[in-house]
Amino acid sequence: MKIKKAAFNLKALIAIAIPVVVSTGEKEKIFEISNFKVFNKENQNYFSVDLINKSKGFLYGDFNVYQKQGSKKILVGAAIGVSSYIPKRQVSYALLEESTGQMLPSGNYELEFIEYSDMNREKGQTKLTSFTKQ
């Protein structure tokens, strides 16, 4: 007996969906930064902060951490291209490599978040907060 036809049934075992968020027009970004702190963990210095998005849409920007010595500010950390779509996110990043293996000195630290409105730094906002390390 000869078989003249063949058939098969294909069932996908893995499905992948990639969400795409589309927004039109410029949206005012309403956000806060709070609970900023600098700390040492396992011989590495870090900063952490709560990034709170109170508006709809995508929040995107850069963090800079400065150690304040009188009127002088020294950059001790940065996180470039931080993003969030959720209402509240705690972010934590290592500070610059120069501080690895040594405790950060006591004193005043300032965190700057530069928001990129519609992916344009010039249209965005800058928010500051500070922390005093004992």
Structure description:
With 134 residues, the chain is mainly beta. 0% of the residues lie in helices and 51% in strands. It contains no helices and seven strands. The protein has a four-stranded antiparallel β-sheet with strand order 4-3-6-7, with no helix packed on it. Strands 1-2-5 form a three-stranded antiparallel β-sheet, with no helix packed on it. Strand 3 and strand 4 form a beta hairpin. The protein is elongated and about 95 Å long.
Question: Summed up, what is this model?
Answer:
This protein is mainly beta.
What portion of residues belong to β-strands? over 45%
Q: Specify the number of helices.
A: 0
Mean pLDDT: 81
Helix content: under 10%
Question: What is the molecular shape?
Answer: elongated
Major beta sheet, specifics? 4 strands, antiparallel
Distance between the termini: 89 Å
Please tally the β strands and state the result.
7
Strand order of the largest sheet: 4-3-6-7
Structural class: mainly beta
